[in-house]
Please model this.
Amino acid sequence: MTALVRLLIVLAVIAAAVPAAAQAPAAQPAPQAPAAPANATPAGPALPSPPVNYVYAPEARRDPFTNLVNRGADPRGTAGQTTKRPEGLAGVQTNEISVRGILQARGVWIAMVAAPDGKVYTVRAGDRLLDGVVRTVTAQAVVILQEVNDPLSLEKQREVRKFLRGGEEVK
Model:
């Protein structure tokens, strides 16, 4: 019975302490420093102002605002203007053509390729494109030796196979 009496005494003490803690006065906030005026300048070194008539002179440096992506895709003239492509098959790039048909005439394979302008051209081995030469035409694909126009690439030429049934393989 003594254990029960002790437990009741502990519960009574806790019950008396809880309301007393709830009625304790709240802590007063610490006084704050006065706020700085709105028109005051921040402390620190003053920044220099640019000259009155400043003009950027590139002096053989590249323009930092020109896009560097796809720079080698099209031949370009001076000042970023595109040069005029030759007419016909000589003005079509390797990645722009798709093989529409392959046929054999007098023992030689001939391919029919579609250009992006909607025209269809006949291609034989040795025909010149804007960025390569048709190496061979087989019953399944057209093999093109493409000139790589990338100054960072170790390869200067690569072999591209354009298949009749769609798809492309680069070696």
